[in-house]
Amino acid sequence: MAELSTVARPYAKAAFEYALSQGKLAEWSKMLAGAANAVSDPAVQNVLSNPAVAQEDKAGIVIDICKNLDDNGKNYVHTLSEVSRLSLFPQIAEQFETLKAEQEKMVEVEITSAYELTKAQQTKLAQALQKRLNREIKIQTQVDKSLIGGVLIHAGDTVIDGSVRGKLAKLAEAMNS
Q: Which keywords label this protein (predicted)?
């Protein structure tokens, strides 16, 4: 069976290209996020996986739950319903956001540090990352005491391990080889 992200990719790209052509990236982002939340609900998942419920009825349920769908969004739900792909909304929304961020030259960066970062430290890291990645940076921070010191940075597929724990692991590996 194909990975869900692989199956969702053409639907995400189609939604993205349409939204981009209409200048409605933000609106489609909200619509897809709302639909993803709706189909993630266990009760809705039960209905979507029930073969006794007609595809048209499944589409109607998703449309009724999602109040922020415009006519094109409703058509999109019907299209996904016709090919039994309503359950892919979370993957579609995720891929749409990735395409949107790429278009807007923005990257969401997750910084994990051993201690809480000050605003000045966050700003300095954001400026350095913006220069290195050549993109607008949106930072989310979290604390993980097990890092001992330093930071661990995730920016898309890029991982920068500047933590003491990571450096100790590299040192141990070098000594053991």
A: ATP synthesis, Cell membrane, CF(1), Hydrogen ion transport, Ion transport, Membrane, Transport
